[in-house]
């Protein structure tokens, strides 16, 4: 894949001004969460928007002392009026504004997803509202890298609003005011200007490339690691980098050695998408079949095999849509990055763990060829008979 084009030079404010012809002033209407300005999740992004145009804050209060002077406080009816006019952008910063955002039908909609507060994360309404809200958004920003990757795998235009480097990546200037901005703010600013001008997205691949470089450097310093190698593989996959397979195999191997009970689904299954993107459909289906752990997965696998035999599908030409949908790759990152408690309360669950462990070892031995049989038996003596049977055959 071609290297994504770099952003314009940002050593000074001139670089950003040259990125595109300055559009007419735009109005940004912020829909905040309850709690006043102190609860606003992205004040740095609001500051950027105030440099780009006029900014409004929807509140039932006519005046609030803590809101910056450059922000105009307006009521919801006034916001509805503004959003009916051209070049007015809705900026939704809480998922419970979903119904309002959908009914207003703004010309452009930016969603800045906050982290849940209090018991919001426990409510099924939280995630369902986010799922619907990002579906109507032209651009989504989030401080969660896990959610950011999930959005990218869903094909949603998103920016990760975070980073490890606090140093300025450039500056932006309005009149006599010069403001240093970090790399993620620079990415957001260019993505914003692209959606305003209708320019094709060039920021997503660039930010993915920056994240891949970060995890590649981190791996070089820390060595092979289950999570680091997996995240590197994910970014390499998004960039169509052929190194994704090696990174994933490394991540899977370490997940096995760390005793993860879900790694066949959370790590190994991802290999099917890598094979599919490379046009290796039979390998993709074989991997998916190995990872099909429940009745629904096995049904999907058998159906895909029948379609393949009948010549009814070509996932490579269809951008791997079918396989990606069925394997649920956009959910992989939730199970990979968030630890789950292990159910070891009874003999039946222990037996299930033994079966899963054997499936890991089969994948390692027959597909990756990286764990000798002697090491398998040494590491898991309770599976000696299963291991011998799987290697020697019935």
Textual characterization of the structure:
With 394 residues, the protein is α/β, with parallel strands linked by helices. Helices cover 52% and strands 11% of the residues. It contains 19 helices and nine strands. The chain has helices at 13-17, 43-52, 76-83, 98-104, 124-135, 145-153, 183-197, 203-222, 226-238, 244-257, 263-268, 270-277, 281-291, 295-309, 321-327, 332-337, 347-368, 373-379, 384-392; strands at residues 26-31, 53-58, 71-74, 88-92, 108-113, 139-142, 158-160, 170-174, 177-181. The protein has a seven-stranded parallel beta sheet with strand order 3-2-1-4-5-6-7, with helices on both faces. It has a two-stranded antiparallel ribbon with strand order 8-9. Helix 5 links the parallel strand 5 and strand 6. Helix 9 packs antiparallel against helix 10, helix 10 packs antiparallel against helix 12 (270-277) and helix 17 runs parallel beside helix 19 (384-392). The chain is globular. The two termini are 45 Å apart.
Biggest sheet overview? 7 strands, parallel
Please report the total strand number as a whole number: 9
DSSP helix count? 19
Q: Could you say which structural class the secondary elements and strand pairing correspond to?
A: alpha/beta
State the shape: globular
The low-confidence parts are: 8-16, 315-377, 380-394
- Helix percentage: 40-55%
Strand-residue fraction?
Answer: 5-15%
Rg calculated over all Cα atoms = 24 Å
In what order do the strands lie side by side in the largest sheet?
3-2-1-4-5-6-7
């Amino acid at each position: 894949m071609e290297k994504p084009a770099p952003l314009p030079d940002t050593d000074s404010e001139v670089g950003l001004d040259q990125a595109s012809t300055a559009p007419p002033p735009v109005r940004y209407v912020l829909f905040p969460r309850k709690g006043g300005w102190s609860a606003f999740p992205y004040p740095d992004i609001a500051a950027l928007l105030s440099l780009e145009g006029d900014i409004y804050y929807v509140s039932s209060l006519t005046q609030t002392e803590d809101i910056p002077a450059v922000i105009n406080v307006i009521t919801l009816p006034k916001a509805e009026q503004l959003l009916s006019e051209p070049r007015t952008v809705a900026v939704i910063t809480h998922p419970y504004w979903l119904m309002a955002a959908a009914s207003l039908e703004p010309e452009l909609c930016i969603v800045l997803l906050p982290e849940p507060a209090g018991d919001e994360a426990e409510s099924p309404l939280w995630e369902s509202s986010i799922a619907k809200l990002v579906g109507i958004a032209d651009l989504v920003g989030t401080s969660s890298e896990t959610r950011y990757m999930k959005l990218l795998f869903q094909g949603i235009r998103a920016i990760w609003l975070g980073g490890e480097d606090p140093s300025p990546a450039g500056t932006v200037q309005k009149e006599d005011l010069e403001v240093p901005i970090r790399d993620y703010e620079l990415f957001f600013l260019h993505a914003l200007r692209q959606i305003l001008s209708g320019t094709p997205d060039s920021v997503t691949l660039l930010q993915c490339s920056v994240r891949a470089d970060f995890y590649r450097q981190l791996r070089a310093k820390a060595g092979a690691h289950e999570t680091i190698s997996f995240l590197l593989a994910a970014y390499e996959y998004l960039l169509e980098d052929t190194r994704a397979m090696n990174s994933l195999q490394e991540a899977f191997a370490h997940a096995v050695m760390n005793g993860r009970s879900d790694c066949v689904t959370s790590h190994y299954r991802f290999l099917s998408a890598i094979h599919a993107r490379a046009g290796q459909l039979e390998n993709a289906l074989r991997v998916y079949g190995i990872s099909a752990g429940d009745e629904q997965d096995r049904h999907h696998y058998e159906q895909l095999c029948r379609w393949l035999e009948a010549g009814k599908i070509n996932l490579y030409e269809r951008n791997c849509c079918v396989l990606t949908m069925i394997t649920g790759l956009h959910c992989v990152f939730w199970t990979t990055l968030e630890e789950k408690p292990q159910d070891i309360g009874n003999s039946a669950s222990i037996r299930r763990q033994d079966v899963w462990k054997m499936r890991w070892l089969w994948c390692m031995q027959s597909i990756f060829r990286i764990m000798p049989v002697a090491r398998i038996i040494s590491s898991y003596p309770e599976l000696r008979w299963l291991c011998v049977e799987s290697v020697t055959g019935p």
